[in-house]
C-alpha cells in the first residue's frame, strides 16, 4: 500500500520520492561466481600493490598515487566489467585512472587486464565509492565517470540510487571546477532522475545544446557489457555530461 503524506499534494509526494536519499550502501551482494585460480591470486597478491589505501592520508595531489607521471586524474565510479576503464587507461597513458568497484567479479576482470597490459596508470578501490570520495581532497580529480550504474528500477528502491543530493555534493567537492561529471544509463527513469537532481544541484550544469549531445557516446567510446545487454533488449543508452561550475560566493 502506498504511504500517504497527510496535507501534501501528489506533486509534493513525487518530489519527496525524488529527493530522498539512502544512508546505506548503494549495491547488493558483492560476491558472485567462484573466481578462477589466477583471478583469486591477483585479488590476493596483486590488488594490494595498486589499491588506494584509505588507511593512509590522502596526498594533496592524487597524481602521487601512480608510479608513472600523470598530468590528470580521472575517477570511474562502479566500473563493472572494466571495459571502459581499461580502454581509457590504454589510450591515455598520461592520465591516471582510479576505478572503484565493490563487486568481486568486476575487480578480478580489471586486475587481469591491468596485469596483462602492465598498466601503470590505474589504481583501484575495492569498496563503496562514498568512502573513497570522502577520503579524497577537494578539487582532486579532472573528471568523473559513472556508466550504467545499478538503476534500482522499482520505485520503492529509488532511494538506493547512487545519484542523490548528498553524493552529488561529494562528487562536486572532489571535481575541479570547469571539469565534467559524465553519466550513462539505458533506464529512462534513472536518466530523468539524474537530470532532475543535477538541475537542482548548484554545482552542476547540463552541457547539452542539441539532442545529439546526449544521444551520442563520448569520443572513442568502447562500449560496455551493460550497454550491449541494453541494446540486445531494445533499450537505448543516454550519455549525459555535466559541467562542474565554480562555487558561488
Automatic annotation (TrEMBL):
<feature type="binding site">
    <location>
        <position position="186"/>
    </location>
    <ligand>
        <name>substrate</name>
    </ligand>
</feature>
<comment type="similarity">
    <text>Belongs to the class I-like SAM-binding methyltransferase superfamily. TrmB family.</text>
</comment>
<feature type="binding site">
    <location>
        <position position="76"/>
    </location>
    <ligand>
        <name>S-adenosyl-L-methionine</name>
    </ligand>
</feature>
<dbReference type="GO" id="GO:0008176">
    <property type="term" value="F:tRNA (guanine(46)-N7)-methyltransferase activity"/>
</dbReference>
<protein>
    <recommendedName>
        <fullName>tRNA (guanine-N(7)-)-methyltransferase</fullName>
        <ecNumber>2.1.1.33</ecNumber>
    </recommendedName>
</protein>
<dbReference type="Pfam" id="PF02390">
    <property type="entry name" value="Methyltransf_4"/>
</dbReference>
<keyword id="KW-0808">Transferase</keyword>
<keyword id="KW-0949">S-adenosyl-L-methionine</keyword>
<feature type="binding site">
    <location>
        <begin position="224"/>
        <end position="227"/>
    </location>
    <ligand>
        <name>substrate</name>
    </ligand>
</feature>
<feature type="region of interest" description="Disordered">
    <location>
        <begin position="1"/>
        <end position="20"/>
    </location>
</feature>
<feature type="binding site">
    <location>
        <position position="154"/>
    </location>
    <ligand>
        <name>substrate</name>
    </ligand>
</feature>
<feature type="binding site">
    <location>
        <position position="128"/>
    </location>
    <ligand>
        <name>S-adenosyl-L-methionine</name>
    </ligand>
</feature>
<keyword id="KW-0819">tRNA processing</keyword>
<feature type="binding site">
    <location>
        <position position="101"/>
    </location>
    <ligand>
        <name>S-adenosyl-L-methionine</name>
    </ligand>
</feature>
<dbReference type="GO" id="GO:0043527">
    <property type="term" value="C:tRNA methyltransferase complex"/>
</dbReference>
<dbReference type="InterPro" id="IPR029063">
    <property type="entry name" value="SAM-dependent_MTases_sf"/>
</dbReference>
<comment type="function">
    <text>Catalyzes the formation of N(7)-methylguanine at position 46 (m7G46) in tRNA.</text>
</comment>
<dbReference type="InterPro" id="IPR055361">
    <property type="entry name" value="tRNA_methyltr_TrmB_bact"/>
</dbReference>
<comment type="pathway">
    <text>tRNA modification; N(7)-methylguanine-tRNA biosynthesis.</text>
</comment>
<feature type="binding site">
    <location>
        <position position="150"/>
    </location>
    <ligand>
        <name>S-adenosyl-L-methionine</name>
    </ligand>
</feature>
<keyword id="KW-0489">Methyltransferase</keyword>
<dbReference type="InterPro" id="IPR003358">
    <property type="entry name" value="tRNA_(Gua-N-7)_MeTrfase_Trmb"/>
</dbReference>
Amino acid at each position: 500500500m502506498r504511504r500517504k503524506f497527510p496535507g501534501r499534494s501528489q506533486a509534493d509526494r513525487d518530489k519527496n520520492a525524488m529527493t530522498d536519499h539512502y544512508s546505506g550502501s548503494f549495491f547488493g551482494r558483492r560476491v558472485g561466481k567462484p573466481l578462477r585460480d589466477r583471478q583469486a591470486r591477483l585479488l590476493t597478491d596483486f590488488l594490494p600493490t595498486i589499491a588506494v589505501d584509505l588507511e593512509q592520508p590522502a596526498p594533496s595531489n592524487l597524481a602521487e598515487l601512480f608510479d608513472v607521471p600523470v598530468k590528470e586524474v580521472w575517477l570511474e565510479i562502479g566500473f563493472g566489467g572494466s571495459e571502459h576503464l581499461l580502454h581509457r587507461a590504454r589510450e591515455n597513458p598520461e592520465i591516471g585512472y582510479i576505478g572503484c568497484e565493490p563487486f568481486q567479479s568486476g575487480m578480478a576482470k580489471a586486475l587481469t587486464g591491468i596485469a596483462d597490459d602492465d598498466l601503470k596508470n590505474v589504481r583501484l578501490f575495492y569498496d563503496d565509492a562514498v568512502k573513497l570520495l570522502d577520503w579524497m581532497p577537494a578539487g582532486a580529480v579532472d573528471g568523473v565517470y559513472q556508466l550504467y550504474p545499478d538503476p534500482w528500477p522499482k520505485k520503492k528502491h529509488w532511494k538506493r540510487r547512487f545519484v542523490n543530493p548528498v553524493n552529488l555534493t561529494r562528487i562536486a567537492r572532489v571535481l575541479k571546477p570547469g571539469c565534467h561529471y559524465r553519466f550513462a544509463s539505458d533506464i529512462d527513469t534513472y536518466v530523468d532522475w539524474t537530470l532532475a537532481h543535477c538541475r537542482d544541484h548548484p554545482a552542476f550544469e547540463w552541457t547539452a545544446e542539441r539532442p545529439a549531445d546526449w544521444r551520442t557516446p563520448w569520443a572513442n567510446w568502447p562500449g560496455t557489457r551493460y550497454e550491449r545487454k541494453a541494446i540486445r533488449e531494445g533499450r537505448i543508452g543516454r550519455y549525459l555530461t555535466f559541467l562542474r561550475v565554480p562555487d558561488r560566493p
